[in-house]
Every structure is written in structure tokens, then in C-alpha cells.
Amino acid sequence: MAANGVVSGSSLIVSFGEMLIDFVPTVSGVSLAEAPGFLKAPGGAPANVAIAVARLGGKASFVGKLGDDEFGRMLADILKQNGVSDDGILFDQGARTALAFVTLRADGEREFMFYRNPSADMLLKPEELNLDLIRSAKVFHYGSISLIVEPCRSAHLKAMEVAKEAGALLSYDPNLRLPLWPSAEEAREQILSIWDKADIVKVSDVELEFLTGSDKADDETAMKLWRPNFTLLLVTLGEKGSRYYTKKFHGAVDAFHVNTVDTTGAGDSFVGALLCKIVDDPSILEDESKLREVLKFANACGAITTTKKGAIPALPTEADALALINGA
Fold it and tell me: Where is each Carbohydrate kinase PfkB domain found (predicted)?
């Protein structure tokens, strides 16, 4: 990123949605009831993406609402400490910051129990949005948790519309969390309700199967989610790497094999790495060899993130990713 303010100003990635605290058992492979204690792990997919971008040297801002409480202030500080602009952060006097108890099963996969009734992130109103910040985004990234309830849903739709009108690339990672939705049907319907608006969409193999009703994460299934206005559709396959689809080409990029401890934040790290590269060179989306290099880099970032507990402490720097790629 150039030191020249004009250039860096035009490469801003704005991430919209929820930030919360995951409480993770001090021992792996136990149920929440069996856990002897919990560690605080800041998270929330859109916030993780913003920090992933900043850690890789990109320019990131987070838009969302936190509780005006100890935890909310802590999360705002974590964003600032990690180089994420706090111009889009609001505090709610009446609601608490969201909490999630997350158990890591013996295989490193997760189970969730959420405390959001309602949490501050759900109460973000359209009129509270920092529209100037959103208009200055070159990439506007979001998930689907902010679509679940009003008024946050309206704020989400408004922010997307404003970013799109201002010429931003829209990036969507639905980040399915079924326990937060009233039903699976509602989740599928609402996640797909804004599908056509995005330029870049990333889904996991599990989300692909859920959204299409298929039991296979193959090319044919992925194409059911393709839309004519998309620039890039990505399917992440965990240890099997990732697949990419554009108007002109499609293919697969292998994963890096690492000692996985905790998969939390791996997808966010992947997205952050991808957006960081695209924001500086949008021609990547038209050039298959460039895109494959970028996806290799994003896969490396995702893999590194699984080697430590918690998302934010595990997010890599560019040097970490290059070391893995170069086999150091």
C-alpha cells in the first residue's frame, strides 16, 4: 500500500456486522457442561475479517454496534490495537455485547450456544450508519447474521445499497450459524434474499450443501449458486483446499497441511487475505494465474489460523503466509 494518502484511501475494506466474545473451554474435546472453565476469545466473522486485513498490511474499518459495557469497550480496543479503524463503531446503552459459548470437539470442530436477547449488534439502526465511511469503501464485506432481525437487517440493506452506489465491490460470506435463526427454512430464504447483490461470494462446503439442498459439494452444485452478475464465487473445502468460479474460468487450489488445533476464524482469514490482494489489484479477478496465486496465499492464511486456539491471535502476517508457502 502506498504511503500516499490518496492511494491508501482508495483501498479501504469496510467490514459490516457483529463482533462478540466467544467463551471457549480451557480443555478441548468436552461439552460445555463438562468444561472446567472458559477463556475469552474475541470474535465475530466480520470483525475477524477486518483484523485479518489489517494484520496483512491492508486498510480496514469495522461497522457495527457493541454494548456500552466492559466487554464492548474491550472489543473496540482490540480492533484499535489491531489497526482497524473504529469510525464505524457504535455503543448501545441498553443492550449487552453478544456472547457465545463455543465448545471445541475432539476433532477441532465447533458447537455454539449464543447469548443474544437482544444483543447490541442486533439494534444497529439505518440512521446510525456512518454513510461517509461506507461510501469510501473500495470493498464492502458482510455476512448474514446481521439479516436475522430488525432493525439491524434494515441497516445492513441500507449499508449495502450505499456501498454499491458508491462503486464498492460487495463481498458476501454468509457464515451460517443455524442456532441463531428461527428455522433452517428462514435461514436459507434470508441468506439467499441478498444473493444477487454481491460481486464476490464465499461459501464453505457445508453452506453450499445447505443452500442448495444437495449432498455433494461438486462443480454442478456450486453452479446452482452462481449468478450472472458475480465476479467470483468461492467454495472452501477445509483440508481439501478451495474451488473458484468466474465468468471465464473455474478450478481448484490445494490446501496446505498443518497441525489443526482450532478451525475458528480460518474462513475469515481466507476472506481477509483474498480481499487484501483484490483491493490493490482488481485485475486478479480477470486473470486465472494471478487468482490462483492469490488463492494459494489465502489458503495458507486459512491454514495458519487453524494452528492456534482462537481466531484473532491466530491470524497471520504476510511473512507467516509466505513462510508456509515457501516451505520454511
Answer: 12-317
Taking only the tens place, the pLDDT of each residue in 135-181 is 999 999 999 999 999 999 999 999 999 999 999 999 999 999 999 99
Contact (CB, 8 A) for 81 and 109: no
C-alpha cell at 180: 441463531
**Which one from 22, 268, 281, 287 is the annotated catalytic residue?**
268
* pTM for the model: 0.94
Q: Is 121 a catalytic residue?
A: no
Contacts of 235 (CB under 8 A, 6+ apart): 202, 203, 204, 205, 208, 217, 222, 242, 243, 244, 245
With cell 464485506, the residue in question is 141
pLDDT digits (tens, 9 = 90+) for 194-233: 999 999 999 999 999 999 999 999 999 999 999 999 999 9
- Give the DSSP H/E element, type plus range, for residue 113: strand 110-115
List of the chain residues with pLDDT < 50: 1-8
Q: What is the 3-state secondary structure (H, E, C) of 148-170?
A: CCCCHHHHHHHHHHHHHHCCCEE
CA 132/CA 222 separation, integer angstroms: 36
CA distance 110 to 105: 6
Give me the pLDDT at residue 293, please. Answer: 98
| Nearest in space to 111 (alpha carbons), one of 35, 57, 169 | 35
